[in-house]
Amino acid sequence: MTELQDLYQELILDHGRRPRNFKALGSANRSAEGYNPLCGDKVKIYVEIDGNTVKDLSFEGSGCAISTASASIMTETLKGKTRAEAEELFQAFHDLVTGRQVRIDAPDLGKLEVFSGVSEFPVRVKCATLSWHTLRAALNDEGEVVSTE
Ligand code: ZN
Questions:
Q1: How far away, in angstroms, is 65 Cα from ligand 1 center?
Q2: 43 — phi, psi (to 5°)?
Q3: What's the 56 CA to ligand 1 centre distance in angstroms?
Q4: How far, in Å, from the CA of 51 to the mean position of ligand 1?
Q5: Which of 33, 62, 85, 102 is the most exposed place for a label (fewest CB within 10 A)?
Q6: What's the pLDDT at 22?
């Protein structure tokens, strides 16, 4: 393990244990639920959309450290972003965790970089992307439960 991998591991464990924005959001005007049957991860994402801006977001649920940390870091990253920026970040994040080349013009992933190691564990990709798929459903106002299957 390199030092960087250790650091990444630590951040994931930290967010897994003490998730940020882990609550129901009273001001939310969108929400969606997601389920990853492969691992048993469940998540509910709350979003307050103001025009085209993600004004605030939060999540609740239960799952493995990777799914919880991913939701936690996602909520931190997307607060204040536009819908288009959120979608671009999702694309870049998806490329990162599936081991594809992240596009050169992609937005800066910031803390989301810590999930780069997930690409070596294909079964974990769904844990890492569950909250993002669920967020997309919330933004698109699809009222159904998202399943990664
Ligand atoms: Zn999981």
A1: 7
A2: -145, 145
A3: 24
A4: 33
A5: 62
A6: 98
- Calculate how far, in angstroms, residue 148's C-alpha sits from the geometric centre of ligand 1: 11
From CA 69, how far away is CA 41, in angstroms rounded? Answer: 12
What is the band of 57 on the pLDDT scale with cuts at 50, 70, 90?
A: very high
Q: What angle do CA 115, 120, 121 make, to 5 degrees?
A: 85
Q: What is the CATH number of domain 3-142?
A: 3.90.1010.10
| CB 64, CB 87: distance < 8 Å | no
Please report the sign of the dihedral spanned by the C-alpha atoms of residue 72, residue 14, residue 101, residue 82.
Answer: positive
Tens of pLDDT, residue by residue over 3-24, are 878 888 999 999 999 999 999 9
Buried-exposed string 104-121: b where 16+ CB fall within 10 A, e elsewhere? eeebebeebbbbbbbbee
